[in-house]
Amino acid sequence: MNSSLFRRLLGSALLSSLLLPLSSAVSPRTEDAAAWRASWHTPTGWSMRPVQGPKPDPAVLAQFGLYNNAKLQSLIDTKGQQMNKVSDRPGDYGFTIVDSPVINAFATPDGHVYFTRGIMAYFNNEAQFAGVLGHELGHITARHGQKQQTRSTVAGIGMLLGSIVAPRIMQSVGGVAQQVVGLGLLKYGRDAENEADGLGVKYSTKIGYDASYMADFFQTLQRTEEQTGAGGIPTFLSTHPNSADRYTRVKGLAAQARQQVGNAKLNVNRDSYLRSIEGLPFGEDPRQGFVEGGAFYHPDLKFRLPVPSGWKTQNSPEQFQMAEPNGKALIVFLGTAGSSLNEAAQGLAKQLGMQSANAQSTTINGFPALAFEGDQITQDQSGQQAVGAHVLTYLIQDGKSIFAIVGLTAPSTFSAYAPTFSSVAQGYARLTDASKLNRQVEKVHIKSVKTSTTLSSALAANGVASARREEMAILNGMKLTDKLPAGSLFKVVGK
């Protein structure tokens, strides 16, 4: 299987790391190849985390997943290390592509640069890729992350718990907000962004690329924002503040850099880059689970789970989360460790800090199951014990896998949400609908034109529906009326 939510069997250590300020833990592996497996350490602040450097952070990979593409990973490794050697502060840095559809690139203060597969789809040449890579490396070499860290201006990278669940529930489950913030991206101010832009131009030019194309990529991001509206703003723009004069400024810096290298050839490498992303997954991968018509479907593990009406959802590589829209309750679905339901229940209750958790055996749609309920005991600032959330958990044994459906809310509202927790668990069922089982991810495909034509005509000739042509124009960094000379390559998206 690919790097999906349910490829790993995360024991109760994962949930506890999100819900409780516990020490790091590693869950044992299971023999079920379809289940989760991963190690996890508690996502505390970056300043408290070990320096990862050339190794990707397990917490980042647990949230996004690793994108396994040797060709693209080699590209980011090679270009990143070339830039590292010519940078202002060479170091033991690392570069990784993660399996996320969001359009983003970010650098963490521990010396690692991450690109999503989503942003890789929107680059149209190596020069754009190199410019953004230099920009992110610039954040590291200029130590912007460490400066932001000191000012405690950390923003979440989109985890549901940090952006949807209201503060009272985050407090009731032991400081979820603070835990999740530890995985966050750093929002940079205008001065830091301008400096990183300059370093991106400098570093990409030094390794032989035309940095003016970095400015073109910022325009692509702006067009994506305009097409989707404010609610769909690319993550890159939410963490890297944009400005009206950024395009002009970067173009000017690139022109100055070109003058400094004299007659040296600066590369763009459009065709080679486009060929390298042939078959790149585009958008959400339904094989990793998707929500549709009030249910969560997982084609690879062949199960379905109901989603309460109006609740917010987020699917990540290690769990599926559902949150009541006002932040009053949360349901988390994930894999857990244990050779039996009783063993899994004991371990999960311990990790959750639950006391007097009464367990009861049951069945759910033919699957052996166990339910237990109790208070989560936390410590307040004075060190005194207090009741956090009230938790209702169902464990379901599906073959060799044991899945947990954890519902939690404040004790005062438990009676209101307990029926919802139960109905979600009781709705766990085998997925048999062929239309859901056979759902496939869209992929980027590279096409060429035999004769000169417009992009609009080329898209139409390749079966792109009119409703998606503007989206494809943005993906290509072009306008629909732009001319494609004979032999030109361009992108389309399809199965």
Automatic annotation (TrEMBL):
<dbReference type="Pfam" id="PF01435">
    <property type="entry name" value="Peptidase_M48"/>
</dbReference>
<dbReference type="InterPro" id="IPR001915">
    <property type="entry name" value="Peptidase_M48"/>
</dbReference>
<dbReference type="GO" id="GO:0051603">
    <property type="term" value="P:proteolysis involved in protein catabolic process"/>
</dbReference>
<dbReference type="InterPro" id="IPR051156">
    <property type="entry name" value="Mito/Outer_Membr_Metalloprot"/>
</dbReference>
<keyword id="KW-0482">Metalloprotease</keyword>
<dbReference type="GO" id="GO:0016020">
    <property type="term" value="C:membrane"/>
</dbReference>
<dbReference type="GO" id="GO:0004222">
    <property type="term" value="F:metalloendopeptidase activity"/>
</dbReference>
<keyword id="KW-0732">Signal</keyword>
<keyword id="KW-0378">Hydrolase</keyword>
<feature type="signal peptide">
    <location>
        <begin position="1"/>
        <end position="25"/>
    </location>
</feature>
<dbReference type="GO" id="GO:0046872">
    <property type="term" value="F:metal ion binding"/>
</dbReference>
<keyword id="KW-0479">Metal-binding</keyword>
<keyword id="KW-0862">Zinc</keyword>
<feature type="domain" description="Peptidase M48">
    <location>
        <begin position="76"/>
        <end position="252"/>
    </location>
</feature>
<keyword id="KW-0645">Protease</keyword>
<protein>
    <submittedName>
        <fullName>Peptidase M48</fullName>
    </submittedName>
</protein>
